[in-house]
Amino acid sequence: MKIPGNINSTTADLKNTSTAVQQNKAQVAPKAPETQSATAVEDSVSISEATRLARDVQAQLASFPEVNADRVAELKQKVQSGSYAMDSYALAGKIVMLEGMIPEQANGPKSES
Is 52 among the domain residues? Predict the structure, then answer.
């Protein structure tokens, strides 16, 4: 196949164009990264009431003193041997007190009896 025109001049033109493009690329300053100011989309997190309650309980638990391992071992031995005397009225009173500290929302829906 015969190509009309001077092939050498066309090849030279392509080389010149290629060289000019490379030089222009070198002269152009690189773009600064675009900042996401006014058009940025903010991420948001929604924490449920149960999660807030759990976080509050964890914070309260962290404020309690460390476990006294010696006292736990002593009570465990008494329970296993049957010599541990428990005041059931005092225990029931503490359970009622603790239930009173739990918000109504955490108890779930009340059943109608």
Answer: no
